[in-house]
Fold:
Amino acid sequence: MRKLEFFVPENYNGVTVKGFLRSYCQISARMLAKLKRVPKGITADGKLIIATDHLKTGQKVILQLPEDEPYLLLPKDVPAPKVLWEDPDFLAVDKRAGQILYRRPGHEERNTLMASVCTYLGKNGEPAAFRPLYRLDKDTTGIILLAKNSYAASAAIGKIHKVYYAVCEGILSGCGTVNAPIGLVPGHSLQRMVREDGAPAITHWKVIGSGKNQTLLACSIETGRTHQIRVHMAYLGHPLCGDDFYGGRKDLIFRQALHCGYLKFIHPITKSVIKISAPFPKDFCTLLSVCNINCTKAVCEMDPETLF
Structure:
């Protein structure tokens, strides 16, 4: 069972336990309700405390998080995930092309990221819970950040800065922003398009390099709409290579050339800045070579603050 420790800073002297947990510790109302039901869920200096108690500067508040429900139906011979970084609260893995997050009809459960991660955690003696903080399309590669407990999930979600790398058709220069709402194509349940009545969507892009008739872009999104980068680049007339769903060619790569290559966030518990990078996969590197686009491995280590 994960225990979290927080020391009451001077500016929170006299604040109620509820006020301290909701504001300073970023505990959600749902998590606070769960902690109340855990034996010794909230203690200070070794004593049980309640939401209306008042705290003093320097007190150590300990939260004992509720245990996760175990994932019992794990298939055998599940491939291990490629771990990029982990600590007691988070796990970052490098998702491969063709891998879905959850089981769907027609797909084996053993090939899902959920089965891979839960098996890995279980073998390490940790709760086999699956909490991805965002999603990547089946054929998009790169970093998936997962929370190992409910507190980490609620405190970090929506506060993660990611850089995606994409190879699009045609030559672009400089940088730009696409601010265009996205909605479903009429009559379709999955395909998206830019439409006036769609959900707000903002994508920033910057050219990293170009070659024969293709351009390598770094992209940052302010919103997380389904297929957002793919739809926005197609809207500009530059669909991603391999993305025939939105007008791209498949003669150079057999999937959309999209990779989540860099991630940065402030750890909600340690308050340290975490930076994670994932190298381009083999097919992405081959595409860059065929297109005569020169770039180095350091591309995936570019801080988003230096790009956008």
About this structure: The mean pLDDT is 90.
